[in-house]
Every structure is written in C-alpha cells, then in structure tokens.
Backbone:
C-alpha cells in the first residue's frame, strides 16, 4: 500500500505530539523527501550498473559512473536495528516510540533512519519485514515504516 | 619499517591539568579552560612562553549547546600565547583527533610543546535550553544528521541505542552484566574527590533506575558537566628534560575504513572501533596482555564494553563474561577500567578525562584509587558511531 491517499487520517504523528523537524532540501535529497506525494520511496540508482546509492550523491562508488538518477523502489524493507524510546525529552512526546534503521528490500547497504509506526513498539523485532507509509509535513513527504503484515 | 617512522613514538605527554568539574560552574567556560591549561603548563614544568602549539577538538562551535564553547583562537588570546602552529576542528578520528594533529605538527617540525584542551559547558547550557533541540521554529536541519531530523531523535542516547541494541541482540549480554560497568565506575568515583557522583550503587539500584532508550538506563549515560581538561604533548627529547617522567605515545589508531556516516555505518554492533584498534596494535610490539590498565571511552557504558572486545582484551561478544561480577575490571583486577569513575560518574570530560586519569595513575598520583604495582602501560580510546580513536600510552623508565 504505497498510495498516500489511502492513509488519510493516519495518526503517525498524533495531535499534540512534537512537530517533525524537517531537513534542508538540496539537489541530491529532494526526490527522497518529496516522491512520497506520489506514494514512491525514491532512492538514487546507478543507471550503468544498477547499484543503489544512499545517502544520495550522483556518483557510483562501484563503477564511477555519474549517470545516477532517483528511482522508485518497492517501499519494502527489513528492520536492521531499532530502539524503543522511554524518556519524554520534550512535552507531548508519546510515552514510547520506535526509532529504527531499515534496509530496503532491494539492497542491504541502503539504510534508512525512520520510526516504525502503526504497531505496538514491543512487537518490533530485528529483521522484521516492513513497508513504507508517508506523512506530509509542509512541502515534504516523510517516509515512515509499518509492519508489512499491517 | 623502523620504529622512528611512526611519528607518535617521538612524542610524549608531559603535563596534565583539569579545572574544577561541576554540574554548574560559577565561572565561564573560558575561565575553566584557562584554569585547566595553566595547570597543565605548570604540571609539565613549562611556562606560557614554552608553548608553541595549540590543538583542540572540535573547536569553538559558536552555539548554545555547551558542547564546545572554546576553541584554539579564544584560548590563544586569553593566554596571549605565541605559537608556531594551531588547529581545532571536529572532522577527525574522534576526540583524540587533536592529539593526532599535534603528533603530526611535532613530527613536521612545526612545534615542540603542544597545549591540547577539551572544554565542556553542557551542565550550564542545559539549564538554559535543552541542548539537543536547538532547532528554531521554521528552521530546517542540514548536514548528515538531517536524515534523522523528522524522527524525534532528541538525544545521543536515543540515536546510539540503535547501535547498542544491535550489540545486545548479537551478543546476548544481560542487564546485570551491562550494569557492572557503571557499578565499577561508581565505586572508583567514590575514591576520587573530584568525581561528580561518589555514592556507590548496587545492582538493585541499577535495575531500579529509569530506562532511557533501548538497553540504556540512566546509569549507562555519561554526566554532562562544566569543565575542561588540558594536556601537554611534547617532542620526546624535550619531554626528557621536563619534571614528569614522559608518558610516551607508543601507538595510535586513527583510521576510517568504514562508511563515515551516522546513518550508513556498516559496523552497527561494534561501531567504528575494530579497524582503529587493529591499526594501533600494528604500530607497536606490545600486545593486549601487556596492558596494565584501560581508560576507555564511556559516553555510554556500551562504548566501554565495545572497546574491551575491540582492543582484544576478550573475544567478540565475550565482554559479558569478562565483566561478569566486575572483578576483572575493578581497581584490584587484572585490567582496571576507568579508574577515576569515568564519564559515567566523574563527568563527561569527553575522552580527555581518560587521558588525565591515565597520566594521574602512571605518575602515581591516584591517592585512594591508585592502582598498585606501578602501572606503566595504559590503553585509552574515544568512540561514538563512526568516530573512533585509540592510543597506547607507556611511561618511560
């Protein structure tokens, strides 16, 4: 389920929760933070050898090609590591939430920092299959991940 | 390669100094820096006129975080030093980047006595504003940490517990084993008059303490302080004419052979330590069994646990057995660890507290916490995600 519109009313960021800090957008990271508008998780890919390159730069460290473009991926991945937060660092922060590193299904060394959402934090496990879900903040579409079984 | 091809072997620590360390100072960060630096200069038996180099990490941040409020320029002007070389900057192999830079400058013949310092003012900063949420409304985050920006990554404890949880998962270490790091260090701190927290803690105290994130409890986290540590690194022939027995820098590890990224780190459970340790051991004939004491980075207890393995004091994922019960790492043990109480109990002096303590012990000034048997060889380290640096220090005969 990659169509963001089917997630209307999503409570990824509940009312009263802290605002999501947003990244500075540049020519390399723009696709990653905006293609969620069309339900797509964009990762840079070498057009010569097919290697995915993240964090994005238009240079392939495998074959030295500079023919590198953002491509939509499956939006699926696996939890490489995660942690449950217990401390309320700022007012409104949910009592517990999951910060995670997700590797995309297409290539193990593309690691995305994210929150695992729409599930009980205690149900998250190492290597758990997950899928992307987006939430709009200002002009950006932030990728989060939820259990693939959702 | 002849031994003298390794520049660090031609350098030594000749003096150390530390300001008063507190949870909120009546003095400015610059004044604390002056206190530590003048103490180090005098400890080495030098004068300001003899200091011809300055190095610091990561330099003046120019922000309100207290993470690094004083740089080489501010210190140079405060002390009116006349130097031949100076440097401050954060893109280096962890906190010891300043020492490695100093070794390079001495080896290049630029200077002879380098004043190195690290100032933290986080205790005061956190009373004014939460130090890790300095983004202003409407402001967007740049740099490598922007990839964490939307995900409520409010603290290093949260972010680095991503690494520690992977280690815990792979190693099977149990909370009562992790606890031995903070329990041992609090015991050491109880014997250190300068430590912040000096009341010993028990396993029950640890298990009852608040959880922060992942496997981290409050006692696994270092203690933000106001304070400064300074050391003098001198060319070895100069060092031999000074008042303290030279503490030679026998070997360093300064490599970066992993992906230098807080998101794409390719060694999650060990962080960037193994290749750094390998480099250090490749530059000396000494072996882990020759080390008398370890002053290991302890921003979080897991950094220390990682270093026990990565320095080779025990095997991969065997630290849990090495620290079980705490006897091996105690002051009386086979490898005393973080004898001042470290950052967990003596305060977050950010790896320079560890160098200060190494020299304190090597020069026999440890008082009640002095390790017996005239220790001569200390392993010491920095850490944090893609940052890692290591030094082996040896007291000259």
Residues:
């Amino acid at each position: 389920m990659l169509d963001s519109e089917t997630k209307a009313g999503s409570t990824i960021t509940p009312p009263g929760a802290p605002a999501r800090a947003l990244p500075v957008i540049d020519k390399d990271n723009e696709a990653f933070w905006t293609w969620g508008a069309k339900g797509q998780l964009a990762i840079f890919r070498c057009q010569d050898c097919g290697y995915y390159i993240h964090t994005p730069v238009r240079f392939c460290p495998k074959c030295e090609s500079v023919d590198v473009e953002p491509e939509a991926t499956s939006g699926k991945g696996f939890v490489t590591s995660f942690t449950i937060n217990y401390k309320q660092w700022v007012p409104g922060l949910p009592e517990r939430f999951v910060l995670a590193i997700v590797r995309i299904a297409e290539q193990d060394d593309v690691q995305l920092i994210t929150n695992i959402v729409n599930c009980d934090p205690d149900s998250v496990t190492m290597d758990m299959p997950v899928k992307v879900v987006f939430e709009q903040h200002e002009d950006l579409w932030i990728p989060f991940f939820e259990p693939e079984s959702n | 390669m002849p031994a003298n091809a390794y520049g660090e072997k031609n350098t030594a620590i000749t003096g150390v100094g530390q300001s008063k360390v507190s949870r909120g100072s009546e003095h400015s960060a610059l004044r604390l820096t002056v206190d530590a630096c003048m103490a180090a200069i005098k400890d080495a038996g030098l004068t300001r006129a003899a200091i011809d180099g300055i190095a610091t990490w990561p330099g003046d941040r120019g922000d309100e975080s207290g993470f690094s409020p004083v740089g080489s320029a501010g210190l140079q002007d405060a002390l009116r030093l006349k130097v031949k070389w100076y440097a401050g900057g954060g893109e280096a192999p962890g906190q010891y980047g300043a020492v490695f830079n100093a070794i390079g400058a001495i080896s290049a013949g630029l200077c002879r006595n380098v004043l190195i310092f690290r100032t933290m003012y986080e205790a005061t900063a956190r009373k004014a504003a939460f130090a890790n949420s300095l983004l202003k409304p409407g402001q967007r985050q740049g740099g490598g940490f922007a990839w964490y920006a939307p995900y409520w990554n409010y603290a290093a404890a949260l972010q680095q517990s991503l690494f520690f949880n992977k280690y815990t998962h792979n190693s099977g270490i149990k909370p009562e084993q992790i606890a031995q790091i903070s329990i041992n260090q609090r015991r050491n701190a109880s014997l250190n008059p300068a430590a912040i927290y000096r009341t010993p803690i028990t396993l029950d105290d640890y298990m009852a303490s608040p959880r922060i994130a992942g496997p981290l409890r409050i006692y696994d986290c270092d203690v933000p302080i106001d304070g400064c540590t300074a050391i003098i690194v001198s060319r070895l022939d100069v060092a031999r004419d000074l008042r303290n027995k030279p503490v030679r820098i026998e070997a360093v590890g300064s490599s970066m052979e992993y992906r230098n990224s807080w998101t794409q780190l390719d060694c999650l459970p060990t962080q960037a330590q193994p290749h750094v340790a390998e480099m250090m051991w490749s530059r000396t004939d000494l072996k882990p069994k020759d080390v008398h004491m370890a002053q290991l980075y302890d921003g979080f207890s897991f950094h220390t646990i990682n270093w026990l393995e990565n320095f080779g004091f025990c095997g991969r994922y065997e630290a849990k057995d090495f620290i079980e019960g705490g006897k091996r790492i105690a002051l009386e043990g086979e490898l005393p660890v973080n004898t001042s109480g470290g950052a967990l109990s003596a305060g977050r002096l950010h790896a320079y507290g560890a160098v200060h303590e190494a020299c304190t012990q090597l020069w026999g000034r440890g008082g009640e916490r002095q390790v017996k048997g005239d220790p001569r060889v200390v392993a010491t380290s920095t850490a944090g995600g893609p940052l890692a640096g290591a030094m082996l220090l040896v007291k000259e005969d």
